[in-house]
Amino acid sequence: MVTFKPNLPLYVIADVHLGGGSAATEDLFDSFIETLKPENNALLILGDLFEIWTGDDVRSPLTQKVADTLKSLSQTGTAIYFVHGNRDFLLKDDYAKSAGMVLLDEPLIISETLPQTGFIHGDSLCTGDEAFQRFRQKSRSPDWQHRILGLPRFLRQGLGKWARWRSRQHGRRTIQQQPTIADVSPQEVARFMEQHGLVRLVHGHTHRLAVHQDPAGPGTQRWVLGDWHQGAGSVLMITQSNISMHTIEITPSGQVKWSAPVQPLAH
Ligand SMILES: [Mn+2]
After folding, report:
1. Cα(187) to centroid of ligand 1, in Å?
2. How far does residue 204's CA lie from ligand 1's centre (Å)?
């Protein structure tokens, strides 16, 4: 658990899935980053910035460009924080440093300036998917990571392709056969929020953009970021007095257009 004291406004994004093949999403990401300059604000990347990550030594023109983009943002005064997702959990300090980001372990918790608010990627909440949770536990161990990162680059790239294929198959099968296990477990959400005394929980991973009321008792909220695809994305913004979530898209003239705030779901 990390007590988190970012500058405000804090912008939170997740599941950008760069490298997933959408050029429009890459353009939106670049333009969005530009809009954050130059201010003493903060950006939290809540996992799965990249579609897949097989080691900091496996660079591509895209990963280099993203590092340069983020580094230039950090140099204009934005503090950038990165929490791992289930696709880029092998991203380490070498790359983070080249991108001007600070790696943090989830959960991050803001408790001083705001009602107790927690931030996680969200895959740990999907406890209905036991096969995934077994892999998650194994792949987060230092031994496993050391073994994988010790493999030759070409082998890791091959494994990465296989993992993407397998994850798509697994996801499709899970959604068809048992739609509820592809989402978070409501019991695990309530348990996690109670464990950390959270009034608000913010996460991504499920790509199910929404604000849920009362997940862990009256007055509590669960804010779920959407993923970025085909030139549209979602951003949560936290100021001293407000929290709001928006979808953003890029206009034909290259401007970033923000939607009206996403409204809480009535239950
Ligand atoms: Mn994810």
Report:
1. 20
2. 7
- All domains in the chain, ordered by first residue: 2-258 (3.60.21.10)
Q: Is the dihedral of CA 119, 133, 142, 157 positive or negative?
A: negative
Q: Which residues, in sequence order, are bridge partners of residue 244?
A: 237
More reliable by pLDDT, 133 or 253: 133
Q: Which of 239, 198, 206 is nearest to 12 (CA)?
A: 239
**Looking at per-residue confidence, does 248 or 179 come out higher?**
248
Q: How far is the CA of 50 from the centre of ligand 1 (A)?
A: 10
Cα 95 to averaged position of ligand 1 atoms, centre (Å)? 19
The answer to whether 131 touches 166, Cβ cutoff 8 Å, is: no
**79-105: pLDDT as tens digits:** 999 999 999 999 999 999 999 999 999
Least confident among 117-126, 141-150, 176-185, 241-250: 176-185
> Residue 227 in contact with residue 14, Cβ under 8 Å?
yes
- Give the Cα separation of 121 and 15 in Å (integer): 9
**Average confidence score pLDDT of the chain:** 94
Tokens standing for residue 9: 């406004």
119 Cα to the center of ligand 1, angstroms: 14
Identify the band that residue 267 occupies on the pLDDT scale cut at 50, 70 and 90.
low
Distance, CA 180 to ligand 1 centroid (Å)? 16
Please report, as a single letter, which amino acid is at residue 96. A
Beta strands in 40-157 (DSSP E): 42-46, 79-83, 101-103, 108-110, 117-120
